[in-house]
């Protein structure tokens, strides 16, 4: 989508400085340098530039405000010139920004408009991408059956048109959802599918996100089978290299979380602690990444019996799951809290926590719901040739 790399690089540097000072909107109106650069572009090129800039700033800062601000500018320019394709892209970006900002009604409004435009333009990739975005919103609302339905529809379209980056993201979403409803065997299948797609992915953000998910998944598998740990470390280090080269700070944080989890499983707690603290050195980590860091440090100190530190990081986790969505994170938090109180001998607090945990688990892991999710996933797999996929870990 980028048109003139020199202009974009300079514009990005200036805008990033202003954005980090939390004065971007005001100073955009007064900055002669930015006005001069922007005035040299117009029409579709300018609309594309705004989207590129918003996405890049988001990858560096993790702040949805950057996507929202520039996507609105892109939409205004696209409407002005009557460019429906760029209007479609702007609506997709806006839907994602509003979803991350927990403004779900606005997100759905932009998705509905984007879907109308995508069908009008016969843009199959965008239709599948929009299904993925609907699924993300559904998960935030704990609508797991609706989410997996649209994720599967997205995967089918991406595979049909040979868009491997999109297919990797769909598999990521399906696997994550299956894990959230405690279907680990089915979730693992999609991690293996993602590995087979790695060589086909040419988009750095998608590649590094895929590597992060694989590394985190393999670190969890290593709890039951240590054979996965070396592979988890391989994927995490590979993703960390790409993340650092491209300044994807949140991804770097995720990779250090994966490395910390690996060392926790290996019982190298000093090294694990070092990795988690390294993750905290990156600026403006998203809440979901911070949650993973705090949880990693909590579990590290829990295992070394430094319970005052374990409780401190548990408290840091407390409000984050509610803020960024998925109820499955809340389940993890309550399980960790229950285990800590039991270990400390605070049995009344442990019992109270256990009651809250069971109530939440009953609402999420409803037998009818999880059976329906498994049925949908099985139907999708039954029409595919699975001969190249098995459950043997890919090791190095």
Give a description of the structure.
- It is a single chain.
- With 396 residues, the protein is mostly helical.
- 80% of the residues lie in helices and 0% in strands.
- The longest helix is centred in the middle third of the chain and has 20 residues.
- The radius of gyration is 22 Å and the shape is globular.
- The chain has 21 helices and no strands.
List keywords for this structure.
396 residues, mainly alpha, 21 helices, 80% helix, globular, disordered N terminus, disordered C terminus
* Overall strand count: 0
The stretches of 5 or more residues where confidence is low (pLDDT under 50) are 1-35, 385-396
What are the secondary-structure elements, in order, as H or E?
HHHHHHHHHHHHHHHHHHHHH
| Shape verdict | globular
Which percent bin holds the helix content? Answer: over 70%
Task: Give the termini separation.
Answer: 36 Å
User: What is the SS-derived class?
Assistant: mainly alpha
Main beta sheet, described?
Answer: none
Number of discrete helical segments? 21
Query: What is the gyration radius calculated from CA atoms?
Result: 22 Å
Mean pLDDT: 82
Q: What proportion strand?
A: under 5%
